Amino acid sequence: MKKLLAILFAALPLSASAQLFGGMSQDNPDFQLIKLEQFFNYLNGKYVDTLNSSKLVENAIINMLSELDPHSSYSSAEEMKSLNESFSGSFSGIGVEFDVINDTIMVVNTIVGGPSESMGILPGDRIVTIDGKSAIGVSRADVPKLLRGTKGSNVNLEVVRRSSATPLTFKITRDDIPLHTVDAAYMLRPGIGYIKVNRFAQTTMQEFNEAFRKMGAVDALVLDLRGNGGGLMDQAIEMSEFFLPAGSVIVSTEGRKVKSVSYRSRANGTFTHGQVVVLIDSSSASGSEIVAGAIQDWDRGVIIGQPSFGKGLVQQQLPLIDGSAVRITVARYHTPSGRVIQRPFENGDTKSYYLDHLKRTLDSSYIDSLNQNAPVYKTLRTGRKVLGGGGIYPDILVPIDTTHNYAYWNRLIGNSIVNEYINTYLEKHRDYIALNYPNFEIFYNDFHVTPQMLNEINKLGAERNILQEDGDALETLPDVGLYLKALMARKLWGSNEYFRTMNTDDPELQKALDIITNPTLYQAILTKQN
What is the pLDDT of residues 34-88, one digit of tens each? Predict the structure, then answer.
């Protein structure tokens, strides 16, 4: 019927067509659809040159979505193939999840164990050149073609990072990209387990349950969701179920055109009584916020870290006839206490939306001002106050340390100096390492990065024209030695050992241990009346 009306409308003189539809409000979506079809018929029938209709329609869809919320999006048929690969299977590439924002490729996440993560690419980095050619304005569909490739081949990237005054350069060797979602699982101390989950994909809870089972008797668990940008909603709900009794509301959704739904635990969870601490940061989003919000609202555990991202919009993926798809926001997430997870935004103003995220991450005074006006909710068991206004605000805030200058270190990493040094060091000392550090436990306890090793990195950097500047001394950075040791551990043993090493001096994790080992403090936090 709509198609027939559009053809009729296009065939009629302007005055007649206006009379035919004169009684229809211009706010009526059917009226605007007919107008759009009429315009497209005029364009194809009258325009002076041959038109690329598919490109015009694609750009129209993208531009319409850009006027809405920050998370509604379009994916071409080729992008859909790449997106599906990111949730199952494997491929060869550099190991990043990306988005194209304001014509710039932004790294959303790095896949642990992948080449980019090993080289020091960070979430939030913007890729501005690829193999010497500008990446500004590159379409979303073309990004995988440029970043993926044959295993062992190289790609040169120039990256803009907010903490660096000048662009960083990276030479990255493509490799098979592991798509596991549990990065590490081990016992921090007898009875205290630790599991780090990097995102929610098809196999997440299968991996999680297996990791938990292998740890043996667990009385307390630290769940690390830092850097976890979300993923499949059903996996986030199932992870929440793991900690909650049957019937507990986990998350609710409400929207203008969809039925409101409350998702509840279908059965008693595997771990409903032991102590729980969840670690979050400013990159914890969507599915991570569902889990953290449910645990916090039910007073099931303590949340530690920085305020989460605040992505609480539900996208429904709808297929288009050519294999492409649109993800349209249809609802909002609410935590069990009723808090809206999505932080405020202005339709079409993506730049301000991400600038707000940066200020929330780095500016504690900005967070304080937001908290003063944030709506207050009460948890469901003890009635303690928790803040709304978007995202999950931790029970224990651990601010980011911004006092150290990492500019020189970033240049060393970005130009492959650190990676080259580690590879050379391990090859040169292979026999010595095998003899003196036959297993990770000995390496973890006895191996130390020496000042001589840092000097050798400085010399290698100078040979590659990466020069140290005032205030850039590596020995002044408290975690550089630990990071080098962790990178070696990864190359020698794997991801689990990398995180065991990095967690040695982790302030959020140390705070979690302090709380878990003091049951009185743990309970006081969960019953605190603000």
Answer: 999 999 999 989 999 999 998 999 999 999 999 998 889 898 887 787 666 655 5
Q: One-letter amino acid identity for 98?
A: F
- pLDDT at position 530 over 70: no
> Is 297 an annotated catalytic residue?
yes
- 262 catalytically annotated: no
- Of the pLDDT bands very low, low, confident and very high (cuts 50, 70, 90), residue 18 is low
Helix or strand run (H / E) with residue 362:
helix 350-362
Q: What tens digit of pLDDT does each residue of 321-354 get?
A: 988 999 999 999 999 999 999 998 888 888 888 8
Residue among 237, 251, 162 at smallest CA distance from 204: 237
Q: Do domains 90-177 and 182-315+328-344+357-399 have the same CATH topology?
A: no
- Strand duo 249-254 + 261-264: pairing: antiparallel
Tens of pLDDT, residues 403-460: 777 888 888 887 778 878 888 898 889 889 999 999 999 999 999 999 999 999 999 9
CATH of domain 182-315+328-344+357-399: 3.90.226.10
Hey, where are the domains in the chain?
A: 2-51, 90-177, 182-315+328-344+357-399, 407-508
Which of 284, 286, 308, 416 is catalytic? The answer is: 286
Q: CA-CA distances (angstroms) from residue 412 to 85, 170, 408, 416?
A: 32, 9, 6, 6
* Catalytic residue, candidates 297, 356, 472, 506: 297
286: annotated active-site residue:
yes
Contacts 24+ apart (CB under 8 A), 246-253: 248/294, 248/298, 248/336, 249/294, 249/336, 250/290, 250/294, 250/336, 251/290, 251/293, 251/294, 251/333, 251/334, 251/335, 251/336, 252/333, 252/334, 252/336, 253/314, 253/331, 253/332, 253/333, 253/334
Question: Looking at the whole model, is its pTM more than 0.90?
Answer: no
Return the CATH class of domain 90-177: mainly beta
